[in-house]
Automatic annotation (TrEMBL):
PANTHER family: ATP-DEPENDENT PROTEASE SUBUNIT HSLV, METALLOPROTEASE TLDD. This is ATP-dependent protease subunit HslV. Pfam families: Proteasome. It comes from the Bacteria. Keywords: Cytoplasm, Hydrolase, Metal-binding, Protease, Sodium. One of its GO terms (molecular function) is peptidase activity. Belongs to the peptidase T1B family. HslV subfamily. Transmembrane segments: none annotated. It comes from Thermus brockianus.
Length: 203
């Protein structure tokens, strides 16, 4: 019997440590989701690393899915693995008629039980206009208490910066996401300063 753990109301939805949640090792990836004043922003840095070598600084690790009113997704981990999982997630999201949480839970069930998928090394952050979730290979769907969600090697720095900017500035969601990732890039060797940001609900 499959088990999918649904965790909600985490004060800081941040997954980063090596070997955490299904043995996923995250290097060279920082993804940050922010929702503020009705606008959702999802930002990803562009760096791809292999071991200690930087292979690329301008990769795009965030996508827009045209499902329902729109869903933003970002991935951390192996690129090929993540793209395979994103394809399954989009299928489940369509089956769920755009319901982010239902689509995420069904994807996590499949991820955990499928003989091939359960070996894929990646994590997915997904957000729509009202909510955001993180899917892990250990069969968990995690939602944050505060509308901030970060994964990757620079995740702790991006999240800390985003929390400060969210609470103590008048910056919009897009500006918070961009600035937080740039701050993370200043202290994390695996995060580049090249940032891609997608939004929902922005005028």
């Amino acid at each position: 019997m499959s088990r999918v753990a649904l965790r909600c109301s985490l004060p800081n939805a941040l997954l980063m440590p090596e070997g955490y949640l299904g043995g996923v090792e995250i290097h060279g990836t920082t993804i940050l989701a922010v929702r503020k004043d009705g606008v959702t922003a999802l930002a990803g840095d562009g760096q791809v690393t292999f071991g200690q070598t930087v292979l690329k600084r301008g990769a795009v690790k965030v996508r827009r899915l045209e499902v329902g009113e729109g869903v933003l997704v970002g991935f951390a981990g192996g690129v090929a693995d993540a793209l395979a999982l994103l394809e399954r997630f989009e299928e489940k999201l369509r089956e769920a008629k755009g319901s982010l949480l239902k689509g995420a839970v069904e994807t996590a069930k499949l991820w955990r039980t499928d003989r091939v998928l359960r070996h894929l090394q990646a994590m997915i952050v997904a957000a729509d206009r009202e909510s955001m979730v993180l899917l892990s290979g250990s069969g968990e769907v995690i939602t944050p208490e505060e509308p901030l969600l970060a994964v990757g090697s620079g995740g702790p720095y991006a999240l800390a910066a985003a929390k400060a900017l969210y609470r103590h500035s008048g910056l919009a969601a897009r500006e918070i996401a961009e600035e937080a990732l740039r701050i993370a890039a200043e202290v994390d060797l695996y995060t580049s300063g090249q940032v891609t940001v997608l939004t929902l609900g922005e005028a």
